[in-house]
Specification:
The chain has about 375 residues and is α/β, with parallel strands linked by helices. The protein contains 12 helices and 14 strands.
Length: about 375
C-alpha cells in the first residue's frame, strides 16, 4: 500500500526539500514511475450503491490569490490555522493509502494549489511512489508562467485552467482584483500549452455578469486548439447569490452560431463516466464540454471523493458528510487502520445531491474552503 509511515514521512520530506532546492532533477529521470507499483489487495473501493471510487480530489490550501465572487465572499474567509492544514507529507501518505484502495486518478485543487509551496514536489512524490494513472491540477493560471515546466517535469499530466471572461473589466469584477490579472492568466495558459501539458479551460457563466462571453471564450479556445468546458453554477456558499445559465441554453446559442451539435466524447471518457459531456458543433473544429450538475445530474456515475486541506474526507460537494483523517493520522494510526476508516466512510456516500431542493444538511462552507 505504498511506503509505510514513518518511512513515507521521511522520504517525502527529503524529496520535497530536495526538489525545491534543485528542480532540475525533476526531469533527470530519477523520478520515473516505479516498476513495482503499490498494490493494496483491493479490487476497487465501492460505495453503498456499487459505484467504484477511483478518483481523489485533494485540496492543498484554502488560500487563493483571486477572490472570485461565486467562490469567496467579498469580506474573504477566515483561513485555516497553519497547524490545522495537512503537511504535504501527510497528504502524500493519505494519497498512498488510497492508491492501495483503488484510487487511480488524483486532482490537486485549492483554493489555488500553486500558492502552496512544494506543490510540484508533491506531484513528483505521487508519481514516483504511487504511480497514479493521472495526476491533474485545477488552477486559476496566475502562477502558471513560472510553474508550468516544473509541474510537467514533476509528472503532472493534465491541468484545467479557470477562465470566465476575456474582458479585463469583467475579469476584475468577477475576481475582485485589479491590475493585469487577466493577462497573467492568459500568459499562464500559453506557458502551459508550450510546456506540453494537456490543457483544458473551465468557464462558469453567470447571468448579467459574463454570459456575453460565451462565443468569445469558445473562439479563444479554438485559437489555442484546446477544449473548453462550461460548468453550471452550483448553489454552494456565496454562489447562491448568483444565477447560472443552463447547459441547454448554452447549447442552443452555440447551435445558432456554429450549427447542429453532435456527441464528441472519446471512448476513454465514456468508460470513465466523468462529469463532462463533449459536443462538436457544425463545421467548427474541436470540442466543447459541459458539466451539468443541476440540469443533467451525473450522481449515479460519480466516482470521486475529496480530501480537504485540513484532512477531512468529503463524500459529496453538497453534504457535510465524511470523516476526519487528520486526527487518526497524527494519532499514530497505521495504514491499515486508516484504510478501514476510509472504506467505512465511503460506504455512506449518498446516492445523489439535492441542490434542487436544498436541505438543512447542505454544507455551509464556501467553495474555496471545500476545494471544488
Amino acid at each position: 500500500m505504498g511506503v509505510s509511515h514513518p518511512a513515507a514521512v521521511r522520504r517525502c520530506t527529503a524529496y520535497i526539500e530536495f526538489l525545491e532546492r534543485d528542480p532540475v532533477h525533476l526531469r533527470s529521470g530519477c523520478l520515473s514511475k516505479k516498476e513495482n507499483e503499490p498494490a493494496g489487495g483491493y479490487e476497487g473501493m465501492k460505495d453503498g450503491f456499487g459505484r467504484e471510487i477511483d478518483h481523489l480530489r485533494i485540496s492543498l490550501t484554502d488560500k487563493c490569490d483571486l477572490r472570485c465572487s461565486y467562490c469567496m465572499p467579498e469580506e474573504g474567509i477566515r483561513h485555516l490555522d497553519h497547524r490545522d492544514i495537512l503537511t504535504l507529507e501527510e497528504t502524500a501518505r493519505i494519497a498512498g493509502i488510497m492508491s492501495g484502495l483503488g484510487i487511480r486518478r488524483v486532482r490537486l485543487t485549492g483554493g489555488e494549489p500553486l500558492v502552496r509551496r512544494g506543490a510540484a514536489g508533491l506531484v513528483a512524490i505521487l508519481r514516483r511512489e504511487y504511480g497514479f494513472d493521472e495526476i491533474a491540477m485545477t488552477s486559476n493560471g496566475q502562477l502558471l508562467s513560472e510553474n508550468a515546466v516544473k509541474l510537467r517535469d514533476a509528472g503532472l499530466t493534465d491541468i484545467n485552467i479557470s477562465l470566465d471572461t476575456l474582458r479585463e473589466d469583467c475579469f476584475e469584477k468577477i475576481t475582485r482584483c485589479e491590475g493585469s490579472r487577466l493577462k497573467r492568466t492568459l500568459n499562464g495558459i500559453d506557458e502551459a500549452l508550450r510546456s506540453g501539458l494537456k490543457v483544458k479551460l473551465n468557464s462558469v457563466l453567470i447571468k448579467d455578469l459574463n454570459e456575453e462571453d460565451l462565443i468569445p471564450l469558445v473562439e479563444y479556445a479554438g485559437s489555442k486548439k484546446t477544449d473548453i468546458r462550461f460548468i453550471e453554477l452550483m448553489p454552494i456558499g456565496c454562489a447562491t447569490h448568483h444565477s447560472g445559465i443552463t447547459t441547454s441554453r448554452l447549447i442552443e446559442r452555440l447551435e445558432e452560431r456554429y450549427g447542429r451539435s453532435y456527441p464528441a466524447d472519446t471512448p476513454t471518457e465514456l468508460y470513465r463516466r466523468g462529469p463532462a459531456r463533449y459536443y462538436g458543433f457544425g463545421e467548427r473544429p474541436g470540442r466543447i464540454g459541459f458539466i451539468s450538475p443541476l440540469s443533467h445530474r451525473f450522481c449515479d456515475s460519480c466516482r470521486r471523493v475529496r480530501l480537504t486541506a485540513e484532512g477531512f474526507l468529503k463524500l459529496c460537494l453538497q453534504y457535510p458528510d465524511g470523516v476526519d483523517l487528520r486526527s487518526p493520522l497524527r494519532g499514530g494510526a497505521s495504514d491499515e487502520e486508516i484504510s478501514a476508516i476510509i472504506l467505512d466512510a465511503v460506504k455512506h456516500k449518498k446516492a445523489s445531491h439535492s441542490f434542487d431542493s436544498p436541505c438543512m444538511t447542505t454544507d455551509r462552507r464556501r467553495m474555496v474552503q471545500i476545494g471544488g
